[in-house]
């Protein structure tokens, strides 16, 4: 999965990311298939699940589709996931347990789905059969006339490592070739971004493919089967459905070169390799398969844009990068980045303890506060449906003890009607002005009436008797303030609690209240408000006019469960935040955060009561995890045994406080497939294990039974999708797993690793050998233009080059605009865009239009990344800074 949401962000931000070409078939030296995704796609279309042969035919049909899209000239590399590092096993375990729980809860799915998808895990008999079938397919295809001379490599599940990382190991050793990677995993975007090869492209299914398949009723029909029985007497085998999986039109090609060039153009003073390493490291904060995401940098709420804006302010080109050349973290520079994130983190924590700003108020569009000419009992109601009778309207307005005296329809030529409603007393009219009234589903707007401006359908009503409506209005205003600051409302009103806690004397400026809709209708004069409130026996007013402040005589802001220490820390947090000491402000509320997010933790973690130790433990582990991920992407697996030891992340402020150096985890070795199966499979999938191992999962008296709960909690934040839920499973202990495993099996019984197998046919002779990424490959055979770009991508590469150079000429002002709407932002405006517009150097001239008629670069302008980098440095002054912020 990589970084959820990254693909959508990149497509919206990066021009030419979706490469525009003349269409398939595309010609590359090497084609790489991250094959587990292909298998899962085919399982989706596997309607006769009792016949495994049909699934294998679907897989082979999908391989034919992919080879019709991309023509590899040197290498076809098919990689199944092997044993993963421990850091990835935790995520695999969560996904499998969650799926098993959902399937068990929905009994019909368990009946329909004969095949357990958890069989697509290294070490299962199914994966062994699939590997054998792929090797057989490769031997057959290598001998085909149109694939003569093409090396076909099958890396099976017994070859350790995730599929995408086995692929990148090959690319690292052969950067001179052109490479096409087929996968929907965002990991491959990052892997391609930091590799040395300048010509890496990503083939993936279009985002709407899954939606199209779900709504296509034809896909759910079982295909017709052969009428005749096979020659060996087996059951009839269905013909492979040519349209079962994604077809050519369901794929799109992404240019990793475009993403690199865009990043380099936004930061023209930065060395490209250092910039890209920093970018990958920063992306760890928004979460991936190995680390949980930091709440303050939620990718769906503009988190990446905020990080890039903060990165720009660091001036890394002159002051130092976030990462060193040996891929370790430069912690002082990270502190500078994290301090900028800490302000938003403080707001998140304040919202968690009930001191947030709350949702943004809708703009008031009424006539404003009542005027001196109002009679105190008459209001105008609109829009009223045309068919509404006087009796229906009178009943709708007679709510909450209000008494209607009469109703009168106003003259209106078209559209919904407006009515004058006269109440029996001023109290009813004053209360109705700020109340919600409806007729059926139609919400009515109520405003005070100016009789001399109204025209009636019939005879106008007689003027109302004079009434002291001001007295009723003042009483309503006092009662409202007493309610707002009183015990019934204040403990649950985060907005007002925030204002009360901002001053130790608890006084709140009157100007805060005049923005409320009720006072927009009733009273806006702050001097008059102050005089009205002074007559209350529950309130105290200090100051005059616009400088008046109000408070309740008693402090009702403390909630029943809050201690005096908590209140003091909340006040200290607000004071530090006002002084822009954001890291220190966050530290004030860290006990509440770690109490709210304890979760199961790995063995050896500090006790939950020791908040400082918990924070340091998680912070050091998280920063070590960023280093681990960076090594994993750039150079390969740094440690097979490292993992992040908690379900929840630390606070950014805690990360900023860590002093180096960070611990280096041991390299260790990949575990046996059987051990990984024990680590990731839920008890419902125990049939996938060898018979002797199944009791370890099924038997409640098993020595590791506590690793396999059938009931567990999930944490789903408001606004998140179901797949984003945090699955709160206990962490497995490798030592106990090994002891349990070897109490049943001998080490000699475990599966042995198998190196990737290569097949090639030359001069009608088929050869096979154990493939190694380090061994040389034949020279590049794919067609290229004079600059080395694949011919079908030359035009797109020229457009990328032109945009990058133009952006660099303007000092990095090339970030396209956008609404940046977040899915859970409190104000819904997209904070990322606000930050971008407030950054120095951002303006209308920062936008570079991208059109289909953009002139092409000349042949003398190289389109490689190195050429782009050279042009950036040539066209930019050393003192220029990016404007991505």
Can you describe this structure?
By secondary structure, the chain is an alpha+beta fold. Among the domains are: 378-466, Alpha-Beta Plaits (2-Layer Sandwich), CATH 3.30.70.330; 472-552, Arc Repressor Mutant, subunit A (Orthogonal Bundle), CATH 1.10.10; 791-875, no CATH class. It contains 32 helices and 18 strands. Helix 16 packs across helix 17 and helix 27 crosses helix 29. The longest helix is centred in the C-terminal third of the chain and has 24 residues, at 611-634. The two termini are 28 Å apart. Keywords: Exonuclease, Hydrolase, Nuclease, RNA-binding. Residues 212-244, 809-845 are annotated as: Disordered.
Name its key features.
Alpha-Beta Plaits, alpha+beta, 5-stranded antiparallel sheet, 8-stranded mixed sheet, 18 strands, 11% strand, disordered C terminus, single chain, 885 residues, elongated, Arc Repressor Mutant, subunit A
- Going across the major beta sheet, what is the strand order? 6-5-4-1-2-3-17-18
Radius of gyration over alpha carbons?
33 Å
Instruction: Output mean pLDDT.
Output: 84
Tertiary shape: elongated
Structural class: alpha+beta
CATH architecture assignment name of the domain at 378-466: 2-Layer Sandwich
Largest sheet: 8 strands, mixed
Under CATH, the homologous superfamily of the domain at 378-466 reads RRM (RNA recognition motif) domain
CATH topology of the domain at 378-466: Alpha-Beta Plaits
Strand content: 5-15%
- How far from one another are the termini? 28 Å
GO cellular component, one term: nucleus
InterPro entries: 5_3_exoribonuclease, La_HTH, WH-like_DNA-bd_sf, WH_DNA-bd_sf, Xrn1_helical, Xrn1_N
Protein name: Xrn-2 protein
Family: Belongs to the 5'-3' exonuclease family.
